[in-house]
Amino acid sequence: MTRVHALPDSVRSVECAVADFTSVARGKIVARADFEAMGGCRLPSVVLGVTLTGGEPDTVFGPILPEDYRDLQLVPDLASAVPVPGRGDRVSVICEPAGALPRPGRAALDASALSPRAALRRVLARLAAAGLRATVAPELEFFLVERSADGGLRPAGVPGGAGAREHALEIASLERTAMFAPYFDALFDACAAQRIPVTGHGHESAPGQYEVNFAPGEPLAMADAVWRFKRLARETAVRHGFLASFIAKPFADQPGTGMHWHASLQHAHGPHAGLNAFVDAQGRDRPQLAHFIGGLQAHAPAAMALLAPWAHSFERLRRSDASPTNARWGDDDRAVAFRLPASSPANRRIEHRLPGGDASPYLTLASMLGTGLLGLQGELPRQDRGPALPRTPRDALDALHASAALRELLGEVLVDLFVAQRRHELDERAALADPHRDWDLRHLVEQA
Fold first, then answer.
1. Which of 110, 162, 215, 345 has an alpha carbon within 20 to 30 A of 95's alpha carbon?
2. Distance between CA 123 and CA 365 in Å, rounded?
3. Model pTM score
């Protein structure tokens, strides 16, 4: 990663932002002088070990992270530095934990093993070693909602709109979308300031649901863009008097929140540098395309814990409506997990439709590109249906915990930490009288 160098003269403070397994940015704001002196900043290691609700699992503190909550170093990637909207004197920089994290009585822990972003960078290094690079483009859905008096959710009313509210599906409605123009204008202005390549938006297939499209780009940059977009969408919505939520299934009888990734591979060098690696010179599919899909299918059961990280995430899959419930592939079929959209040979690509909008973009891309590469290198066969997918979050976590392939791709420590946190949350949720109201809606509406 890029190390600290001179910042623009106008910068007085730096927001050091680090990604954990959620979509919430963690970190701190430090004065410019301290940022430059420390080469980033320090952060208590406990921050990366707690659950979404602040729980401290016994299976994390001691077995994985030090029990004394000692500090770890956050190293900035200065290539990711962008202005903080509305603050001309502050920049936001994405950081990663790095260095040795001492653990009394045990071997020191490499702090980079805790980072989903670092895991994605390692997978991209594998692609590069294979002579390949990837281009990806996300399609991200979310809801504009507000809390109702009974503790549930309803589509957001139009601010200052004399009670205007969507009461039934208004699919692709330009009129309803225009009513929220002040919100989207502010959101996309912030996206432009932070170099988030949003290309379009529109009303989706459920009341209060919208989809945003992104331009294709390099995987790490696009994962950063989605991670930052989710934060901007939530913060901007609160300032406009409602909530933007990426919760998987806010309304039981309506479609859920997807995060679909289109991905293609290109030759990185040689006489075919820059050309699509999924097709030959005549524009016909190469065997590599089928093998890539074979890898996605073979490892889909274990990857499901990453693509559907919460118990509530499985409601999107269990009550499917335009969401896949299987590991099938198909040509231009939105009911399958791995879709091959109609395209020119130069744009031949795979659309991965399993991830929910509540998943980590870093872990989603790391698992997608990593398992696809394993399929390509191992010449795994593409299956008509693919293996059965886990039907419960505990089954998915068990599959991830037992997966030698994903442990090797993502790192033993990262998998163990992810599984321990999610199991702790499942136990916490199961102890409640009304888990959906008192855990899902309480925590995921604003943090998924």
1. 215
2. 9
3. 0.96
**DSSP character at residue 277:** T
Q: What are the beta bridge partners of residue 42?
A: 73
* Amino acid type, 315: E
Phi, psi for residue 129 in degrees, rounded to 5: -65, -25
Q: Please, what's the b/e burial string for 8-36 (b: 16 or more CB within 10 A of its CB; e: otherwise)?
A: eeebebbbbbbbbbbbbbbbbebebeebe
Phi, psi angles (nearest 5°) of residue 362: -70, -45
Tokens of 283: 């524009």
Q: How would residue 7 be classed by pLDDT, with cut points 50, 70 and 90?
A: confident
Q: How many residues does the chain have?
A: 448
Determine contact, residues 157/242, Cβ cutoff 8 Å: yes
Confidence of residue 3 (pLDDT cuts 50, 70, 90): very low
DSSP 333-344: -TTSSEEE----
For the segment 16-37, the average pLDDT, to the nearest whole number, is: 95
Q: What is the largest CA-CA distance in the chain?
A: 64
Residue labelled with tokens 């925590």: 443
Q: What are phi and psi of 237, to 5 degrees?
A: -65, -45
